[in-house]
Write a structure and sequence with these properties.
Elements: E1 6-11, H1 17-25, E2 30-36, H2 40-49, E3 55-57, H3 60-66, E4 71-74, H4 81-90, E5 94-98, H5 105-117, E6 122-125, H6 132-144, E7 146-154, H7 159-163, H8 171-174, H9 178-181, H10 184-194, E8 197-205, E9 218-225, E10 230-236, E11 244-251, E12 255-259, E13 262-265, E14 268-269, H11 288-301, H12 309-325, E15 329-331
Bound molecules: nicotinamide-adenine-dinucleotide (NAD).
Length: 332
């Protein structure tokens, strides 16, 4: 692509749009020309906060048809990810898509088919792949030889977290609970360490949010990977302590733990992996600027996307299989 300034829009001006707009502020050669939210006040508030010369839309499709966009960042509720991505791809607009990629396996196929037809591509926002602790852990693990890995995600989510949102906690709009929303980054790490998942045996339940959500707040399971490795997970939004996430990796000679943004090797903190300032909540890490810079560099160079759908789809396939499992082994 020629060296012109790329024209960018953000749809969904809620919590995580802060990370996207902060990153876009320091990305060379891009201009945010439009913001879209069904709630115009939220888009207006972001326009002011970031001093943007951007047009406000409340209708995504009108924005796509009215502006000459090169890329759109999709940061809307989960059920909108697939239709909004397909609409952008049909217009040859690149997509930086917030996780999860989508909420059904049919939608995975729709997005990939639209990508094949389009001159544009999709990057899925697994920005924690770029957290220094994760990068260093993966390097040590791969060099030493991975034996197994598992994660525990112990989060506290109040009833209000769900009741104050018009999309969280509902199967139709969120597509699931703790797995599709909070644990998906950890699933993505498990897959990046152990390879392609081929089967899962899992159980899910709603321990502490009965009558409030119609999705799981807790899920645990065992995953089999191509090549014979196995991994475990336990994820809950019903924890009563302070929220924490740990990924444990057993390698031939070491035990690694990435606890939030810190890396421990054989129980010793590896000092220099402590994350610098995080953007927004600590769990988001500071990967959005890195990922977004890589996304635009790839567009300009005509190179493959930094986190393509071929890689991002597996976390969705795995968690949907875990939902189907009900304690039985299910192939992915
Ligand atoms: N990568 C991460 O670490 C990370 C962190 C938080 C959230 N997320 C993801 O980002 C997405 C948004 O999450 P959030 O926490 O910002 O949610 P949010 O509810 O704060 O924001 C969503 C916004 O989308 C708007 N919206 C809803 N329907 C719309 C439509 N049809 N057209 C335009 N706008 C519409 C809402 O008005 C709201 O402002 C989700 O997919 C979530 O999983 C990712």
């Amino acid at each position: 692509m020629e060296k012109k300034e790329l024209r960018v829009a953000v749809v969904g001006c809620g919590v995580i749009s802060y990370n996207h707009l902060t990153a876009l502020k320091t990305t060379n050669g891009v201009k945010v020309i439009a913001l879209c939210d069904v709630n115009a006040e939220k888009a207006e508030a972001r326009r002011k906060e970031f001093s943007l010369d951007a047009k406000i839309y409340t209708d995504y499709y009108e924005m796509l048809d009215s502006e000459q966009l090169d890329a759109v960042h999709i940061a809307t509720p989960h059920y909108l990810h697939a239709p909004m991505t397909v609409a952008a791809l049909k217009r040859d607009i690149y997509v930086l898509l917030e996780k999860p990629m989508c909420i059904t396996t049919e939608e995975i196929e729709l997005i990939k088919a639209a990508e094949r037809e389009s001159r544009a591509d999709v990057t899925v926002c697994f920005q924690t792949r770029y957290n220094k602790a994760n990068v260093v852990a993966k390097k040590i693990a791969e060099e030493d030889g991975i034996v197994s890995a598992y994660f525990t995600l112990l989060w506290q989510r109040s009833n209000e977290y769900y009741t104050e949102s018009d999309w969280r906690g509902r199967l139709k709009t969120e597509g699931g609970g703790v797995m599709i929303n909070q644990a998906i980054h950890s699933l993505d790490h498990l897959i990046s360490l152990l390879g392609k998942p081929i089967a899962v045996t899992a159980t899910k339940s709603n321990h502490a949010h009965r009558g409030v959500i119609d999705v799981e707040d807790t899920c645990e399971g065992v995953v089999e990977f191509e090549g014979g490795l196995r991994g475990n997970f336990y994820a809950t939004n019903a924890f009563i302590g302070a929220s924490r996430t740990s990924i444990f990796v057993k390698t031939k000679n070491h035990r690694l733990e990435v606890k939030n943004s810190l890396l421990y090797v054989d129980d010793k903190l590896v000092e220099d992996t402590e994350a610098a300032e995080h953007l927004g909540k600590e769990v988001y890490g500071n990967g959005h600027p890195t990922l977004i810079a890589k996304f635009y560099a790839a567009i300009r160079a005509g190179e493959p996307m930094p986190i393509p759908t071929d890689s991002a789809e597996w976390s969705v396939r795995l968690l949907l299989a875990a939902y189907r499992s009900c304690g039985e082994r299910v192939e992915i």
